[in-house]
Amino acid sequence: MDVEHEFVANHNGWAWGFKSFVLLSELCDRDKGYLINDLCVVEVKVSVRNGIKILEDQETGELIDFRGLGRVEKTFVPFLEEVCSSYPSLLECHKKRSRTFIQCAFTALGRLLRFLKTTKAKDMTHDACKRLQLLWEELETFKFDLVWLEPHVQSVLVMKKRAGRVDRLREDVEILENEIKRRRDVLAAAEVDLEAAKRDLAKAEEEFKKIDMDTELGYPLT
């Protein structure tokens, strides 16, 4: 039996996972194959979301106290003060957590805010988008109420795709403009040929008119 479960920390800081996923009677049924020689082997594979890895990349700058909640990177504080003043729920939602948890949570929030505040739209390369995605996934693990921020982050993440689409459309327009120019050149050359053909036709018609169409064809005699 293959089952999947995503670990989500609850208000106590842990999750118990599945309460049950197979009946005891079914587990003990030898025909099901779960028990072999009265032994049941359970294979577990654990994967950790990529965003967690950012926690290992802690800033090495000066740490200062943030509103008595914990010590965070000094450069994060102006950004944290700004958003916490606008969204007080950010301060309330983690008051019952441990000081270490709160410190990590606001460090993650500050890291994301600083990225958004110090990065220009023109700097959103593929690597920058990947970095922002990791920062966002890291922040999500701390269960802040981020309804106010998520739409903006998602719009920034698709900015590179929009820029790529604009570049492709610009290339298409350039190709079509070049094709129109080429065809105009071909048309101009054809118009020159047409005028020359008209002149030749007029000359040929003039010479043709000189022929007496009622004259007997006959044949030459020696």
What attributes characterize this protein structure?
two-stranded antiparallel sheet; mainly alpha; 2 strands; 7 helices; 222 residues
Q: What is the percentage of strand-forming residues?
A: under 5%
Figure out the total of helices. 7
Q: Mean of the pLDDT scores?
A: 80
Compute the separation of the termini in Å: 113 Å
Number of strands: 2
Class derived from helix and strand content: mainly alpha
Largest sheet: 2 strands, antiparallel
Shape: elongated
Q: What are the segments in which pLDDT stays under 50 over at least 5 consecutive residues?
A: 9-16, 50-58
Overview of this structure, please?
InterPro entries: MATH/TRAF_dom (IPR002083), MCC (IPR050804), TRAF-like (IPR008974). By secondary structure, the chain is mainly alpha-helical. Helices cover 51% and strands 3% of the residues. The protein has seven helices and two strands. The protein has a two-stranded antiparallel sheet. Helix 4 (99-118) packs antiparallel against helix 5. The termini are far apart. Mean pLDDT is 80; it is low at 9-16 and 50-58.
